[in-house]
Amino acid sequence: MDRLKRFLRHELYEPAVRMSATELGISLSAGGWGGLFPIPGATTIAVFFLLLLLRTRFTVTPVVSALSVAINLLLTPIQLMLIPLFMLPFSQCSPSSFLAQVHELPLLVLVVEFGQCLAGSVLVWTAAAPVAMAALFCCAAVGTRAMRWMNKGKFEAER
């Protein structure tokens, strides 16, 4: 356990403290964007492709990537809780209607209906993700600048 703490402190925490506001904003927004993707198991791939896309505009360091993936994985419980919310606009996708149909419909029909519900939830997520990503980026940038301003002497002494 002590080895894990040292590793996380040396490889993730210390480099993250030295990140710029933009880098921290990219990490938080990319990790949050992918962490809320409504298909469990596909979030890490979503974050990977987003970071590849962001490389064309920003400098994406290994620390930014690692922090993005860590945030992505930490959001898994919230992701699982939000899946029904993403399916809410589609009336046939409510959990109660699914449970009622389990004994009535053949398995193939249930799988197809669930696939349609997941596709719909991805559409809802696609509409909400840019707004959430921009908000996370702005909050991270403002928060980082405020922390650096409050601890100005401390950060200059470390560098």
Automatic annotation (TrEMBL):
Domain of life: Eukaryota
Residues that span the membrane, as ranges: 33-54, 66-88, 122-144
Keywords from the UniProt entry: Membrane, Transmembrane, Transmembrane helix
Protein name per the record: DUF2062 domain-containing protein
Organism of provenance: Guillardia theta (strain CCMP2712) (Cryptophyte)
